[in-house]
Automatic annotation (TrEMBL):
GO terms for molecular function: structural constituent of ribosome. One of its GO terms (cellular component) is ribosome. Belongs to the eukaryotic ribosomal protein eS17 family. The lineage of its organism: Eukaryota, Fungi, Fungi incertae sedis, Zoopagomycota, Kickxellomycotina. This is 40S ribosomal protein S17.e.B. The gene is RPS17B. One of its GO terms (biological process) is translation. Gene3D superfamilies: Ribosomal protein S17e-like. Residues 143-157 have a biased composition (Low complexity). Residues 120-157 are annotated as: Disordered. It comes from Coemansia guatemalensis. PROSITE patterns: RIBOSOMAL_S17E. The keyword NAD does not apply. It holds the Pfam family Ribosomal_S17e.
Amino acid sequence: MGRVRTKTVKKASRVLIEKYYPVLTLDFHTNKRICDDVAIITSKRMRNKIAGFTTHLMKRIQKGPVPGISFKLQEEERERKDNYVPDQSALDISAIEIDPETESMLKALNFEKLPGISVTAPVRAGRGGRDFRRRERRPRPQRPGAPAASAAPAIEA
C-alpha cells in the first residue's frame, strides 16, 4: 500500500518548486542534494520525503500544469496559450447549409438576409436496410441428443 504524505511534506515541496524550479530536475538524488543546499531540514528522513515528493511533482509538471503550484514559467506558458490567435478560424462561415425549418425560424426573427446561407433538403436519418423487429422467427435447430422443446418434462405440484 502507498504511504500517506503529510501536509508538511506537500507544502515544503510546493514552496521548493515555486522558488527553485529552474534548478530542480526529474532525478531524486539531484533534488535531494538541492534540498540539502537550499533548505534547513531537521532530519534525513524528512529531507528524503520532501525530495521524493518534489521529484513526483516535477514529473507531473512535465505533463501539464499542476494545481496549487504557480511559478513564472508556468504562468508565462499559460499567458502565451491564452493570447494565441489562429491564422485561420476553425469555424468556416463562408457557406452555411441549413434546412427549410431553420430557414423559417430565421425569417421569423428577420434574419433571412444573412450572407452565405444556402437551404438544402432535409436529410432523413433512416435505418441501415435490415429491420430486425419485423422478421419472422425461425425455430432453432435441435442439437443431436437433446430433448425437443415440446417434450420437456412437466413439473407437477
